[in-house]
Amino acid sequence: MDSFNQTTGFRYNSSSNRMSHHSDDESEFSGILDIYVHHARNFHNICIYDNQDVYAKFSLAYNPDETLSTRIIKGSGKNPDFNENLRLKITKVDAVQTCEIWMLSRARNYLE
């Protein structure tokens, strides 16, 4: 079993004024979600030319268009090691975080 030296956590901003007239304002800051992306293991390598280049993409369910991504891990195949820290600002305390693994498409480069 791998041991991880980094942690993922949530810090809540208790000094935010939740009783203000702007409590429904999406831009009001409530906290920070610190994410440590360690690795992904054993997912299908769909690239037929070489080992796939992948990255992880994170978002919050209430705002799926605002995303954070890791750097691209070139030639990682099915076992990328990210070892990267990301930070999401949270505006809703009951937020749900999503993670997706994406392959960088290089099809245009192979066709040229």
UniProtKB/TrEMBL annotation:
Residues 1-25 are annotated as: Disordered. It comes from the Eukaryota. Residues 13-112 form the C2 domain. PROSITE patterns: C2. Residues 1-18 have a biased composition (Polar residues). It holds the Pfam family C2. InterPro entries: C2_dom (IPR000008), C2_domain_sf (IPR035892). This is C2 domain-containing protein.
